[in-house]
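Morning. Coffee machine broken again, so started the prediction first thing and wrote up yesterday's gels while waiting. Chain of 400 residues, entered below exactly as on the submission form.
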Amino acid sequence: MISYIILFISFILLSFFSFSLSSIFFVAILTISLYLGLSFDQILFILNENFVNLVTKPEVVSVPFFLLSSELLLNAGFTRRFKNAVFSNYGNNLLGYIIYFLGICTTISSSVIFSKVLRNDFSKEEFGNKRSFVRSYFFLSAISYVAPISIPLIIIASILEVSLKKTILISFSYALILLVIYYFLLFNKNFMPKKDGTSILQILPVAIYFIALYFLIYVISLPIDVISQILFLYTLFLVIVTKNFKVYLIEISAKSAFIRTGIIVSVIYFINIFNFYSIYTNSTENLISNIAILFSESGFMLVLVYVMAFFLMDLIDPLGIILLLFPIYSNIINAYGLNKYAFLISFLGFVSMALIGNIKELPGNIIREKLNLSTFEINDIVLVDFLVLSAISFGIYFIL
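Came back before lunch.
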């Protein structure tokens, strides 16, 4: 268990100094390498092999292109025009609500960018009072995290080695069901989007993206990296031919997308190396064996994973939680032959609750700045929704 002990100590010590998750893993990996007595050449070999394996994964290659497409759709105003066209032509009802939010959740691949859409394209008055605005922001951000082609969904499907086609279909159904449920629980009474008479033709850019995505996945069956590149070229073409085209829109989008890509890919890279060390030192096998002594049933062992995720929510990004706990839950799933698809959607839905945390760029932090609310006030407002969504995420595992 030496790898986990070193990682735990590094995490505790460096978190107090606001070190990033990548930095913490780098320190832990360097410490483990020195403990194992590896030479400089051996360390370089491990780093290089993991880098080559990482950049050849289709799912990782797709990340910057999906992020770029999302940033361009937002910064060029297509998401705002889509919103105005949908609610002007379909009205503020269940149909308009589903068309808009399911369309945007599918085309925007990052919850961070999705929160920008909510912040830029809506006023807080459109969601009713302050309380309903916070609840709506929290719920919609959580949905976007589990939505089809969200970056976390693509990554966890890759590391668990499951069919992305089936994962996206389950995710689509999950998002649709939750959107319908929350329409009647929250949005039916409080959601009042502004209408400005925008032509229905303004729906087409996002609608074509939406249709093309599923056509390329389920009809032509192209790899996800190729699909991401095709959709990026389509989005870039839309931006260039628009009337008010400005080069700086591409520059802003590219800068934001590449910064986010660097953060995501670096975390995946270091966690892959840590996983290699944990296997090499039998740390994961020993950890699972010790857990199994206390919890003989697979269900109890999975609950322990959720408990660990809960305590990490205020400390690191949700994607960091998914990757950090991967060696543990993947071994539990393989050892007990559990349903990977059920766990994937269930666990992803649960860790999406961490989006309300006080971490830079996450939706929760944006709410604090926008409404000048304390962490305690926000947690009090979303407590019921947190419990409802947590219960649904647990229930998904048993339903599937």
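The radius of gyration is 21 Å. Going to sketch it on the whiteboard this afternoon.
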